[in-house]
Amino acid sequence: MGLAKTEMFTDQQNEIATYAKVFGHPARVAILQHLFKINTCVCGDLVNEIGLAQPTISQHLKELKLLGLIKGNVEGTSVCYCIDTEKWSQMKNTMFHFLNQDLSKKEDCC
């Protein structure tokens, strides 16, 4: 299997691609939406809310946490998750600048 060759690209390009990857699965989008909707930490009701098995939910939480979009705190025997608002704001800023690039409309390209 070939290398991804991410070192060929800028840090910003790699960061945008990582955000796109994490948003590329509807379960992760659903988890984020649920965390925003409840606006507090969640400690385990994601399995019932999202409808996936616990190991699957745990894997998606791990991906979101690795990227830093969510953070987790240990409370008793469970981990409670919430949105990391600082990292979320950074991600929004990065994606805003990327998605709001405008093409000059001098002529059609094709």
| Poorly predicted residue ranges | none
The count of strands amounts to 2
Number of helices: 5
Rg, please? 17 Å
The share of residues in helices is 40-55%
Cα distance, first to last residue?
Answer: 35 Å
What is the oligomeric state here?
single chain
Shape: elongated
The fraction of residues in strands falls at 5-15%
Query: Which sequence of strands runs across the widest sheet?
Result: 1-2
Order of helices and strands: HHHHEEH
Structural class: mainly alpha
**Mean pLDDT over all positions:** 88
Summarize the main sheet: 2 strands, antiparallel
Question: Would you mind describing this structure in some detail?
Answer:
With 110 residues, the protein is mainly alpha-helical. 54% of the residues lie in helices and 11% in strands. The protein contains 5 helices and 2 strands, in the order H-H-H-H-E-E-H. The chain has helices at residues 11-22, 26-38, 46-50, 54-67, 85-99; strands at 70-75, 78-83. A two-stranded antiparallel sheet has the order 1-2. The longest helix is centred in the last third of the chain and has 15 residues, at 85-99. It is elongated. The chain starts with 10 loop residues before the first helix and ends in an 11-residue tail after the last helix. The relative contact order is 0.13.
